[in-house]
Amino acid sequence: MEHDAWPLVLDLAGVFFFAVSGSLMAAQKNFDIVGSLFLGSLTGLGGGVIRDLVLGRFPNAFAEPVYLAPPVAAAVVVFFLLPAVVKLRRTLLLFDAAGLALFCTTGTITALTLGANPISGALLGTTTAIGGGLLRDTVANVRPQLFDRHDIYAVPALLGAGLVAFLWQVGAYTPASGGAVAVVVFALRVLSLRFRWRVPFAAVVAHREGRATPPAD
Amino acid sequence: MEHDAWPLVLDLAGVFFFAVSGSLMAAQKNFDIVGSLFLGSLTGLGGGVIRDLVLGRFPNAFAEPVYLAPPVAAAVVVFFLLPAVVKLRRTLLLFDAAGLALFCTTGTITALTLGANPISGALLGTTTAIGGGLLRDTVANVRPQLFDRHDIYAVPALLGAGLVAFLWQVGAYTPASGGAVAVVVFALRVLSLRFRWRVPFAAVVAHREGRATPPAD
Amino acid sequence: MEHDAWPLVLDLAGVFFFAVSGSLMAAQKNFDIVGSLFLGSLTGLGGGVIRDLVLGRFPNAFAEPVYLAPPVAAAVVVFFLLPAVVKLRRTLLLFDAAGLALFCTTGTITALTLGANPISGALLGTTTAIGGGLLRDTVANVRPQLFDRHDIYAVPALLGAGLVAFLWQVGAYTPASGGAVAVVVFALRVLSLRFRWRVPFAAVVAHREGRATPPAD
């Protein structure tokens, strides 16, 4: 039973972290508490809904009322507990990184459990991890964090999802090894923010035309 | 037969109202008539398509050609009949409110009829009601009306969807009681616009940092 | 076998053309190579994923790893081979037109093969053709090319999808006739760009209020 409960607990934790990042974005954009709840839900549950639609099952977010608890908790936390948080952007990034780490693990496992092959599983895990944040940024009309060239975002998620699929394929996936992958993904993401690890521009032409200073986004 | 036809008639009316709001947005943004037809279709049919995808059935919008009639009618109405309408924004809001009221009712009933439990049904009804408008605003690159803090938008939809699910659960749902719910939702939405009913900000921090005047969006 | 391979080859070519348009957009917006790969994938595969979700099958983009090759190739091409391309916008439009032409054909055939009626098939083909570009523009936060009033975009796709559905219905669809439709769609789109063919505004009111010069978008 404990073996079955772990994925749910981690999945709900991922929903919460992403939902906080959505509710913080709502605060940044001066949305109201309903906007906070909805943008948090979209961020926390959107990636999983896309994964479940691709897998052809009734999405957890709609089927299991327990999935509504994390976004509600996130909106409450952002509303009541963060009046002193000035650096919203930094906090948002940390919560987003925690969601990314958990979802690339749980998303991949969910897809593999439902019969996806390792490559599809890793892709769906990555989609689960990056889908919610992409929906958040698209709906809130901001430059997608996913495409930001100041740091790496999708690379840790792809790496984590691929690692989980590999562990599953060779029979070495356990909650402990999955948790270790999530820790590595979180660490890579946070270190990339701190040390501004980058990947090259999308095109050499863009680099040549590039401004001396990055856009403020 | 009449008992079966009512939901379809109301659903098509909802598609028409939302499609008009989409075509009016297209007029505001200087899109062409094809943009008007597509943005109207996306607004009128998008929420229902998401609902049907979640429910795992072939979406009405693609399966039943009759669902294409309201967006075509909406584009024609906006093109020919509204040259004198100066206050596009106010008209758009009224049509949007009518679509909201009808869709939170018909969307919930559709989900319940297809076997969703009351909570899933209310969530899917709300998704049907707010999905099209959110797609419209996201694609047209404007601040989502859903998150606007000058009035309430999702609260009436949630309330209406929950009420319909409750009536269904206790066996009291009839076309008449469903219609009454839709009228209440429409009234709540319009009154919230007129009297600028609001819900609190997304965060206390946003409130403290808040500007004296709301953003112009 | 060759008969079966043609749709796949054309579909992969369509993915490549749209993916190049996505990666070029990423270069325009100063995204990094990961952003280039993801925006290219979203543009190249997004329309087909929506089509497959509506049709209720496991989307090709996730099921068949071969569909990942064109976006990778597109990102590499944009990164290495285009340093001298100054007129990114014009090149982007040509690749986009090629993707449009191929997808309105292959998307319609895919839907018809899976049992859709002619009208649903034409709609899903059009959705396949315009979905990826709409996702690209929405995520990249630019005015959707689809709604641009300087040229025609959706009309050739609708025409091509309708023509393919008609040919299928009367038993005259062959790879050759399908290819001819794609060529016509491509020609119509490119000619509309060159000669600035337009369709009317979304509303007469917008026309009267219209600015003397079109917006720069």
UniProtKB/TrEMBL annotation, chains A, B, C:
Membrane topology, record value: Multi-pass membrane protein
Signal sequence segment: none
One Pfam family recorded for the sequence: Gly_transporter
Localization, UniProt: Cell membrane
Transmembrane segments: 6-26, 33-54, 66-86, 93-113, 174-191
InterPro entries with a match to the protein in the record: Gly_transporter (IPR005115)
Domain Glycine transporter: start-end pairs: 9-81, 94-168
Principal subcellular localisation of the protein: membrane
Protein keywords: Cell membrane, Membrane, Transmembrane, Transmembrane helix
Family classification: Belongs to the UPF0126 family.
PANTHER family: INNER MEMBRANE PROTEIN, UPF0126 INNER MEMBRANE PROTEIN YADS-RELATED
Protein name, as recorded: Trimeric intracellular cation channel family protein
